[in-house]
Amino acid sequence: MNSFRGDMSVKYLKGVGPKRAELIAKEMEVTTVDQLLHYYPTHYIDRSKFWQIRDFRGEMPQVQLRGRFVTFTEHGEGARRRLTGLFSDGTATLECVWFRQIATIKKLYLTGTDYVIFGKPTTYNGFWQMAHPEVETTVRAEAHPGFRGVYPLTQNLRNHQISSKTIAGWVRSALDAAGRLPETLPPSVTTRHRLMSLTDAITEIHFPTDPERLQRARLRLKFEELFYLQLDIRRYCRRRAAGLGGLRFPKVGKVFNRFYSECLPFALTGAQKRVIREIHADMQSGRQMNRLLQGDVGSGKTLVALLCMLIALGNGYQATIMAPTEILAAQHYETLRSMAAQLGVSIRLLTGSTPARERAEIHEALADGSLNILVGTHALLEAPVRWRNLGLAVIDEQHRFGVAQRARLWAKNPVAPPHILVMTATPIPRTLAMTVYGDLDVSVIDELPPGRKPVVTRLRYEEQRMDVYRGIGRQLREGRQVYIVYPLITENEKLDLRSLEEGYENIREIFRDYRVAMVHGRMKPAEKEYQMSLFASGKAQILVATTVIEVGVNVPNATTMIIENAERFGLSQLHQLRGRVGRGADQSFCILMSKVKLARETRKRLEVMTTTTDGFVVAEADLKMRGPGDLEGTMQSGMPVKLTIANLATDGQIVQMARDTVEDILDADPTLSSPDGRMMAARLATLSTRTADWSRIS
């Protein structure tokens, strides 16, 4: 019987001990043997191949050399002290340089002795150099040929002489002690997908025998992480669906039909029609709707939301829409009121600024059912706000609200929980939609209304600044408005970036004939709202701002956006900012100001912005370039299973494979009560990071 205990402290492993255990707990977040076995290399070095110094060209990878040290020389004093070893492989020489443990290294390595060295060569003053190389005798190097893993290391680990080789030694000790590892996936799953055993996968991920087996090991371990992530999400969804009934809206109703035939401001796109059908199907099902509506800026989500609220009204219920800021709530109110003016629908606005008398009127009208649609901010969540029969709650820019806040809407209907429609203007790639928003049904508006002109996006550099300002001047003279966005509020000596405070004064000086408003995150809410309203009303022609405006007001007259130090922003954020313009019929422009000298990846990122206005293309590119970290933070209750090897940016096929497998398992064994089911439930319990069961909350 296998006595392996994954929860055993790493301090009991050979070569670790209590002091090192404390260090790796802090630096590697590893305390148990199981965590160590899942501390994977980031990449691998083929140690069967030897380079020759004479063949070095340009940017070099990490390489392995065989040769001898010719001389050792000390230079400098104190903190500047260094040791240089001249290394020859018979074809040429390079300098090996050490800045630490000099006395030890002088005793350890000898001239005239054969060594194998490993590290990354760089050029310094026209000479090849290698800083702090790994050095082994030829005998030891030949004992471990082939691929070697390179583990993530902090400087503190290096300072304590812990290298990739050290970690590999601990892993080897753990595997030797463990023997066969207990399997963490049922045989039906490993057989279905021809997956490696856990023992083989863990062994190969740390000590690959060949590239093909390494890929198979990676597939097994990625699949397992994504499988348990999907198992958590899909169980959660099914529990919610089984445990919760919902209001049934069997018809669209007269008010919907009248609006559709008489008041529709423009013809619906095919995508809008499809999404409304999906939402109405949920509303008819007798189950509570919990749906995410995602659509690019300007895709017509607000109109879809209104039509869905009219379905609620047509079935005898009230509706509400909650926005993250007062100014956005006021904008929704004005938009809905103007669109529904002919219908006789009662619509009111409730925010923190609503006077007490008006607030009391709203409370009364909600309670007696005469108020049909309430638009508001967090003020909707206050205890006195009670609906007679709330049927649909729409939450705009949903990532700005915490799940616990949204949950408070549930108590607002005494009969049954209202249908929930959450909206986002951040396009979510499909892989993330299955994970980050995996506990929601997803609808996508992937068409823009006819007549909208794509925003022209240009990349410009400092020497072109005056040309950019002349372009702003032309827009202002034509009566248009302009956003200028800065990465910082105040100047920072460590960062060579433009600041809002400096930019505000410059812009006021250059464009003296125009009013300039300013908004940033350190302002008091009332001042921020006032400055935004100056711009929204047209009293100010230029708005100087930080990224606080990425979720903001709709100003159709704003046709130009300048983004300073655009290289400092992620793609999704740039796209979100760009969405502030292009909301009217006029041609709009987004100018990305940047440094001339850019890293290749940075330039590539900015060029994506100049070649497409499709939010989904941008989101996919952003996901591939930066990974899913930012978006993971928007999940309803955080990522329920930590991913250490799987990558949502690149492993979309494995996500789908895991999801399909989970659905089949839950169809056959919904409660996971079979022997395999109980094993999976137990494993999930050890992996899950959920701190609350939100299956009873939207």
Overall description:
By secondary structure, the protein is an alpha/beta fold. Among the domains are: 49-144, OB fold (Dihydrolipoamide Acetyltransferase, E2P) (Beta Barrel), CATH 2.40.50; 254-445, 3-Layer(aba) Sandwich (Rossmann fold); 456-612, P-loop containing nucleotide triphosphate hydrolases (Rossmann fold, 3-Layer(aba) Sandwich), CATH 3.40.50. Helices cover 39% and strands 17% of the residues. The chain has 25 helices and 22 strands. The strands form four sheets. The chain has a seven-stranded mixed sheet with strand order 6-7-4-3-2-5-8. The chain has a seven-stranded parallel sheet with strand order 12-13-11-14-15-10-16, sandwiched between helices. Strands 17-22-21-18-20-19 form a six-stranded parallel sheet, sandwiched between helices. A hairpin with a 2-residue loop joins strand 6 and strand 7. Helix 11 (270-284) runs parallel beside helix 12 (301-314). The longest helix has 33 residues, at 211-243. The chain is globular and about 95 Å long. The relative contact order is 0.09.
- How big is the Rg? 31 Å
The CATH fourth-level homologous superfamily of the domain at 254-445 = P-loop containing nucleotide triphosphate hydrolases
Order of neighbouring strands in the sheet with most strands: 6-7-4-3-2-5-8
Shape: globular
What is the annotated CATH architecture of the domain at 254-445?
3-Layer(aba) Sandwich
Mean pLDDT: 85
Q: What's the CATH topology name of the domain at 254-445? A: Rossmann fold
What kind of sheet is the major sheet? 7 strands, mixed
